[in-house]
Automatic annotation (TrEMBL):
Lineage of the organism: Bacteria, Bacillati, Bacillota, Bacilli, Bacillales
A GO term from the CC aspect: plasma membrane
Every Histidine kinase domain range: 494-714
Protein name stated in the entry: histidine kinase
Enzyme type, top EC level: transferase
Gene3D superfamilies: 1.10.287.130, Histidine kinase-like ATPase, C-terminal domain, PAS domain
Length: 723
């Protein structure tokens, strides 16, 4: 049977035509794209270089000011010890001589006069008040601010000046007794910022917050000029940092800008557009020459390939047509057939070997004791091992191929997404996140992330290892708490030794005075004001001795809480009793106390007084938190949670800041200025002594919730079954 389709003619022409479209045209497009992308890359690099230089200049400037502020504050702090204004003034003068950063540095008293005027130049009645309006403005601001600050002032003539002012106070938060005011020397910064210019024609400048050039490296050509009308100032005034391309001070420039942290001026680094674009022009020339060479080489290659490729293809096609017509298949027509077959077998072997290695890697990941997630550079999950999926209460197939935001742990997903989006290289990043699993259990997840790289060390994704860090964190907190309690135990032991003995003597003396006075009054019928005064003093001695004894007892309880007598307690009735104890204080503070518990009898075994003390401490703590709140509400809820009694104290107070939440159970730590810091610490110890637990959740501005869990006492039936 004859095959109906014949081999088309002109295959060489078609090969060359297709080669032009498939090879040369895409190559041209690729070169054009490469030129464009390279230009963009170099521009971005130039922008990044300029921005990094501006940021470095900002940091350098900030460090200079921090150093000078530290020195001046040290002078003022030393003054608090010796209160010698002349010595403070002398140290300021010596500092001005040593440090060229100041053009002037003067000490003024609380009235605005020179604290130590020059006797040789000042008459006795001469007024030494501040005459310089700018200095006067800085001094007046120092009076009401009472803190160190940096001030930039532009005078009506456009002259920019920068001052550092440090208040002189007898103690913190007290009215000032003077001020140490120094004016920055612009010449110092002129020389300082010259060291960080970019290239031969780059230059730097510092701009004040109102847009006035304080100094620049162009021989102060633009000093005291205003840049408020420049486009870049709109970014500066909003505190932004970055790079700007465009017209700046009548020239095309690339400008990096960054605010100087917590200071009223900005750092700007500039290089001309011609200097910044020089590498781009060179690259375009090189790429154009390369494209020309490759284009000509491609034409030659197409001509040669036409003979090397088309001829074997035509022979192979003839063989295929012969096979279609019923002839036997024989591959000896092409001499290259053996190499093709060998290549096919080699590729099949490599594919099988690669598949086996992939299965081996999957087995390793499956047996790894930690969770492992890999993502590509776009944040798409490429693999999850079994341990990681179980920790996240999911399955590998559910998570693989989906965005990292699919992961139940929001902290973990944000961490991975941030690293996938990060442009700059990183080696290893570690963090901890809170995570509530599907059962409601609160866990701490420890995460360690490293970049995934190909053979060229290019980042193609990230590899994240994570594990349950909860037990380690609890152990660490327990160790810290044990150290605190050990220190308190030593302190209370010493306190008891030093206070108990003289305290007993004082109490005995007070009792003796009272008994003697009673005997004298009856015997001599004394009834004078002096006798009443002695009796009152004796009562005060006994009362203060009793109060001090209670304080020592509290310290001893904190050092080693102990249960005097264990009894069976109805939790609901105990909470009701606590609510009655604080009802008067609640009414006086306009706070409502609501107690919620079911009729179910929840019984725990423990020291009644200690449990009441713990509940009372939590209630009074809530009362203190709501004193400034209008119509506050304290809700106490009693419920059963498996084999535990759960007591929740929820208040509508101001809440606890997140930065302080982990320390509220530490001894002597208090969020209130007048607090002792012992109430919650004692409560924590009392609950632990009863084999219970206490947790706190709080959102600043929305109130706090303390949850106490105590083991329920087994009922009689359960005890019999256990026996």
């Amino acid at each position: 049977m004859k095959f109906p389709v014949r081999l088309p003619r002109g295959l060489t022409k078609r090969f060359i035509f297709l080669g032009l479209w498939i090879f040369l045209l895409p190559m041209t497009l690729i070169f054009m794209l490469a030129v464009f992308l390279s230009q963009q890359t170099l521009e971005n690099q130039s922008d990044d270089q300029t921005f990094e230089a501006a940021r470095a200049l900002s940091v350098q400037t900030r460090q200079v000011f921090d150093h000078q502020i530290d020195m001046l504050e040290t002078f003022v702090f030393d003054y608090r010890n010796d209160e010698n204004l002349e010595r403070l003034d002398e140290r300021a003068a010596q500092h001005t001589f040593r440090e060229p950063v100041f053009s002037s540095l003067a000490l003024y008293d609380a009235g605005g006069s020179e604290a130590v005027p020059d006797e040789a130049e000042t008459d006795e009645n001469e007024n030494t008040m501040i005459e310089d309006p700018a200095v006067r403005q800085v001094f007046e601001e120092t009076v009401w601010r009472r803190s160190t600050f940096v001030k930039s002032i532009t005078e009506p003539g456009g002259h920019a000046r920068i001052f550092i002012s440090v208040p002189v106070q007898e103690a913190d938060h007290q009215p000032i007794t003077g001020a140490l005011i120094g004016e920055i020397n612009p010449s110092y910064f002129y020389h300082l910022i010259q060291t960080s210019t970019i290239g031969e024609r780059g230059w730097n400048l510092l701009v004040t917050s109102d847009g006035t050039v304080y100094t620049d490296t162009q021989e102060n050509r633009y000093r005291n000029d205003s840049v408020k009308d420049e486009a870049i100032f709109s970014y500066l005034s909003r505190g932004r940092m970055g790079a700007y391309r465009g017209d700046f001070l009548d020239s095309d420039s690339v400008a990096g800008y960054a605010p100087v942290e917590r200071l009223p001026f900005y750092a700007v680094t500039i290089q001309p557009e011609s200097q910044a674009g020089a590498p781009i022009a060179t690259l375009q020339q090189v790429l154009s020459s390369g494209w020309t060479v490759l284009f000509l080489a491609g034409l030659v290659l197409l001509g040669v390939s036409a003979r090397w490729i088309v001829t074997p293809v035509r022979k192979l096609t003839d063989q295929a047509m012969s096979y279609a017509e019923g002839e036997s298949w024989h591959l000896q027509v092409m001499k290259e057939e053996d190499e093709i077959r060998t290549l096919t077998k080699a590729m099949q072997f490599m594919a099988d070997d690669l598949q086996e290695k992939e299965r081996f890697l999957q087995r390793i990941l499956a047996s790894f004791p930690y969770g492992v997630i890999t993502t590509d550079s776009d944040g798409i999950i490429t693999s999850v091992n079994r341990e990681g999926a179980e920790l996240l209460n999911s399955r590998p197939k559910v998570l693989t191929g989906r965005p990292v935001e699919t992961v139940p742990s929001k902290g973990l997903s944000r961490h991975v997404r941030a690293l996938c989006s990060r442009k700059r290289p990183f080696s290893k990043e570690s963090e901890e996140f809170p995570y509530v699993n599907h059962t409601g259990q609160k866990l701490v997840i420890k995460v360690s992330t490293t970049p995934l790289q190909n053979e060229k060390r290019e980042r193609i994704g990230v590899l994240t290892t994570f594990w349950n860090h909860t037990d380690y964190r609890k152990l660490e907190q327990h160790i810290q708490r044990s150290e605190h309690l050990a220190a308190i135990g030593q302190m209370t032991a010493g306190l008891a030794h030093e206070v108990k003995n003289p305290l007993g003597t004082i109490q005995m003396a007070g009792d003796l005075i009272e008994a003697e006075m009673d005997g004298l009054k009856k015997k001599h019928r004394l009834n004078s004001p002096a006798v009443s005064m002695i009796e009152e003093a004796s009562g005060d001695i006994q009362e203060e001795a009793r109060r001090l004894n209670e304080l020592v007892t509290r310290f001893l309880k904190l050092s080693k809480p102990h249960k005097d007598e264990e009894t069976s307690l109805n939790v609901g009735e105990t909470v009701e009793e606590v609510a009655r104890l604080i009802s008067h204080q609640m009414k006086r503070a306009d706070i409502t106390c609501n107690v919620y518990h079911k009729a179910e009898q929840l019984t725990v075994k423990g020291d009644r007084n200690q449990i009441i003390q713990a509940f009372l401490n939590l209630s009074l703590n809530a009362l203190e938190a709501m004193k400034e709140t209008e119509s506050g509400v304290l809700s106490i809820t009693v419920s059963r949670e498996k084999d535990q009694a759960k007591i929740v104290f929820h208040d509508s107070g101001d809440g606890i800041p997140a930065s302080k939440l982990n320390r509220i159970f530490n001894p002597f730590f208090s969020t209130k200025q007048e607090g002792t810091g012992l109430g919650l610490s004692i409560t924590h110890d009392l609950i632990n002594e009863h084999k219970g637990s206490i947790e706190v959740e709080s959102e600043f501005g929305k109130g706090s919730e303390f949850t106490v869990r105590l083991p329920l006492e087994p009922d009689r039936t359960e005890r019999k079954e256990a026996n």
